[in-house]
Amino acid sequence: MAYIINDECISCGACEAECPVSAISEGDDKYVINPDLCTECGSCADVCPVDAPKPE
User: Which end of the chain has fewer CB atoms < 10 Å from its terminal CB, N or C?
Assistant: First the structure.
């Protein structure tokens, strides 16, 4: 199961830079993770200041 970014996201962009497979991009109101690219490494969750990325 891929990670998803919940509504706690503050659009800081910290997660996007940490993703080793470039699965994270800026969405309309928060960052989003492409589930087809996500490898479930958890790097995004490790750097998020509000714990927005969670395993789906």
Answer: N
